[in-house]
Specification:
The chain is of the alpha+beta class and 260 residues long. It has helices at 2-62, 68-97, 112-129, 148-164, 211-217, 223-233, and strands at 107-111, 133-138, 143-147, 171-178, 182-189, 237-243, 247-255. A 5-stranded mixed beta sheet has the order 2-4-5-7-6, with helices on one face. Helix 1 (2-62) packs antiparallel against helix 2 (68-97). The termini are far apart. The protein binds adenosine-5'-diphosphate. Adenosine-5'-diphosphate is lined by residues 157, 161-162, 165, 189, 191-194, 202, 207-210, 214, 219-225, 248.
């Protein structure tokens, strides 16, 4: 009887193990699929500027006497594509650093008011070129234990987007506030907004809401993935509200103290 009991329990154990194995196997396949998709997206994104450069160079080479004007124009286009390629590679490198499992935070006590002032100062010339008003409102002094470089990149991306996806004569309002546990950064713009059905996808790598418009504006579709990665590494949260044609509000919440 004992033996029979043993066999039954053996059997259920084997079954449990096999079930667990299947579950792990299933999860691994999901990870593998998304990795494959990522690699295929990266390849595609890196190839696009290369293809353009090849076409531009080939058409110059195919002509005997290229007028100086045309030569200059094509070279200018090629330089632009190189710059784009460079931006994609830089963004990819940033994204890798924001990988929650691989990345480490270099935490120190940072004056967040000053950090935001620095970001605004750097982006003001870009905003002015498009006649966009850039305003920072700090409701209180904030010192927080954060990774200065990663947080700066995360917030810069939000302000850059607010400028990029704005309308002429528009505005961008950035505000900083805090309670006893968190600080909050809000980036509000008077821009083109994000369609409702796109909102849930904007943090995906390479996702761009308005393909034709976005292509013109120039971007990699990696900015918000980087921002979200950095915010999550700080155990923070990010939220977006938007109304198409009216504007967008991003809110980031980060703990004042970093808990390991
Ligand atoms: P990109 O390099 O295209 O700017 P992001 O990851 O930063 O990539 O943003 C993803 C997409 O989300 C953008 O292509 C754009 O369509 C949309 N988006 C992001 N921020 C804003 C904003 N403030 N207003 C309108 N659309 C935005």
């Amino acid at each position: 009887e004992d033996e029979e009991q043993l066999m039954i329990s053996d059997y259920t154990e084997t079954e449990a193990i096999s079930e667990a194995f299947n579950e792990i196997w299933g999860k691994m396949r999901v990870i593998d699929d998304s990795r494959q998709e990522f690699v295929s997206n990266v390849s595609h994104e890196l190839k696009t500027p290369l293809t353009s450069m090849k076409v531009l160079a080939d058409s110059l080479l195919a002509q005997g006497d290229v007028p100086a004007e045309l030569y200059k124009e094509f070279m200018g286009d090629i330089a632009e594509e190189i710059e784009r390629e460079n931006k994609i590679i830089n963004d990819l490198l940033s994204l890798v650093k924001m990988d929650k499992s691989a990345g480490t935070l270099n935490v120190s006590v940072v004056n967040v008011n000053e950090l935001l002032e620095m970001i605004m100062k750097r982006l003001r010339p870009i905003a002015e070129r498009q006649n966009i008003e850039l305003v920072l409102e700090s409701f209180r002094p904030v010192s927080a234990e954060v990774d200065e470089v990663k947080l700066s990149l995360a917030l810069s991306n939000l302000v850059e987007n607010a400028i990029k996806y704005n309308k002429p004569e528009g505005w961008v309002h950035v505000s900083l506030n805090a309670d006893h546990k968190y600080f909050f950064v809000r980036v509000e713009d008077s821009g083109i907004g994000i369609p409702e059905e796109s909102l849930e996808h904007i943090y995906e790598r390479f996702y761009r809401a308005d393909k034709s418009h976005s292509r013109e504006i120039g971007g990699t579709g990696l900015g918000l993935a980087i921002t979200r990665g950095a915010v999550l590494m700080h155990r923070g949260a990010i939220k977006a509200h938007s109304k198409e044609g009216e504007g967008t509000i991003f809110t980031v919440r980060i703990p004042l103290m970093y808990i390991v």
